[in-house]
UniProtKB/TrEMBL annotation:
Transmembrane residue ranges: 274-294, 314-333, 364-385, 397-422
Family to which this protein belongs: Belongs to the GerABKA family.
Coiled coil regions, renumbered to chain: none
Annotated InterPro entries: Spore_Ger, UPF0353/GerABKA_families
Protein name per the record: Spore germination protein
Keyword vocabulary terms for this entry: Membrane, Transmembrane, Transmembrane helix
BP-aspect Gene Ontology terms: spore germination
Native source organism of the sequence: Cohnella faecalis
One GO term describing the cellular component: membrane
């Protein structure tokens, strides 16, 4: 035992929160080993010391060490590295001094926040529940909502120094076996010296680089469970509230929870509004640039005169004006997301109104383009998924560049290039443009 203790101390670099408590059982010296910053003292008392006092009484005079523990799971530890692995998971180790065999039992300290609705995925009529930073709790929430014996979970421990688990969840018989195997294979090939974060795992799951988002991430339980029931696969990591879902199509990012719960007519109307918002955010700025620079003859004469007069005091081309205004509005939007809610409202209103009015007065931008950019930003906020908003910003810049070079022809060329890539993209072997393009080959 003494040699094993020295190996454990060396593996943990003689950390001072490693606690070793000696005690006596059946006349033989034994030791309890645990990390006090990871273990709960109450669980240690219930699982070990209460039974220890009983073992010392006449009623339980010859209680063996593996029957002494009252924890649900008891693991036998054979080497120092395995012992360190269990210690870092919040487990306690117990063993006799004259034996190298140790027993690991659960004494993990649980610091779980309450289940709340995700602040970045609000819903009007959906559930007020989201994932938390505890893997077991998240799996419990999925199983309770799915209520099916077909829900299957597979665990992985990834990384050189990994102590937290990654769980792959799917519904047996609904999810395709080939996609499940491909997902497991990609996760198994992930190598990291530190803990696994969903952002790093997302890059590993993406086989082909693209401007289109290919991995859907959510913190909502109802959204993740609904996608699981439609044959998708969920990937969850410990110490994170983000759930990754694969494979997904372009339309998965345009679906909202409210549309899933409302009737068909109301859902169709909501989807139509999201589609209009997407088109506005993509094309309204580039159409304005193409019209003012190349094709102003398509507008009525009075409107053309008004637009040209508003641009007289602007000292640079409309495309530069567009890029500056989009950048300013994006900065305001990102600031409001990361600030406290009360301060975010003030920054959003004050920044949007005061900055825009000041820029028009000093001739930095035209007043017409303020309205154009505002319509574009409002349209982008109609999109439910945050990943799709990043895609919209990239495509918006591409369309602006195309419009500034060739006008409407530039917009058409960029759109054709995007559509070709859109129809040929197949993450996990599933067409990204489903249901337009069939999965059958």
């Amino acid at each position: 035992m003494q040699k094993r203790l020295e190996q454990i101390k060396n593996e943990l670099f003689h950390t001072e929160d490693l606690m070793i408590r000696p005690f006596e059982l059946e006349g033989q010296p034994a030791k309890l080993i645990y990390i006090e910053t990871l273990c709960d003292a109450t669980k240690l008392e219930i699982s070990l010391f209460k039974q220890w006092f009983r073992a010392r009484s006449n009623t339980y005079s010859k209680l063996e060490i593996n029957y002494l523990l009252t924890a649900a799971n008891i693991e036998t530890v054979s080497d120092a590295k395995e012992a360190v692995h269990y210690l870092l998971q919040g487990k306690g180790l117990i063993g006799f001094d004259d034996s190298d065999e140790l027993y690991a039992f659960n004494a993990e300290q649980s610091n779980i926040r309450s289940i709340q609705e995700p602040a970045n995925e609000l819903s009007i009529i959906g559930e007020r529940a989201g994932f938390v930073e505890q893997l077991s709790v998240n799996l419990n929430l999925i199983r309770n909502r799915a209520s099916s014996s077909l829900v299957k979970v597979r665990y992985f421990a990834i990384g050189k120094h990994a102590t937290h688990k990654v769980a792959v969840v799917w519904i047996e018989g609904v999810a395709e076996k080939s996609i499940v195997s491909e997902t497991i294979d990609r996760i198994s090939r992930f190598h990291s010296s530190m803990e696994v974060h969903p952002g790093k795992l997302q890059r590993q799951l993406t086989a082909k680089r693209s401007i289109f988002p290919q991995i859907y991430s959510t913190e909502r339980i109802d959204t993740a469970t609904s996608l699981l029931m439609h044959g998708r696969i969920a990937v969850l990591t410990d110490q994170s509230s983000t759930c990754l879902v694969v494979p997904v199509s372009f339309y998965s990012f345009l679906n909202s929870v409210d549309a899933l719960l409302l009737g068909r007519g109301t859902a169709w109307l909501l989807h139509s509004m999201i589609a209009i918002g997407l088109l506005l955010s993509l094309y309204v700025c580039s159409l304005y640039i193409a019209t003012t620079m190349f094709h102003h003859e398509i507008l009525p004469a009075k409107m053309t005169i008004n637009i040209k007069s508003s641009m007289e005091n602007v000292p640079y081309p409309p495309v530069v004006e567009a890029v500056i205004m989009i950048l300013i509005f994006q900065l305001i939007a990102e600031a409001t997301v990361r600030l406290p809610s009360q301060l975010a409202q003030l920054v959003g209103v004050a920044g949007g109104i005061i900055i825009s009015e000041s820029l028009v007065k000093i001739g930095f931008v035209s007043n017409v383009f303020i309205v154009i950019v505002a319509l574009s930003m409002i349209g982008s906020f109609m999109i439910p998924a945050y990943q799709m908003r990043n895609f919209v910003l990239i495509v918006q810049i591409m369309l602006l560049i195309g419009a500034s070079i060739l006008g409407f022809y530039g917009i058409v060329f960029v759109t054709i290039g995007l559509l070709i890539h859109f129809f040929t993209l197949e993450p996990f072997g599933v067409p990204y443009c489903m249901p337009i393009r069939s999965h059958a080959k």
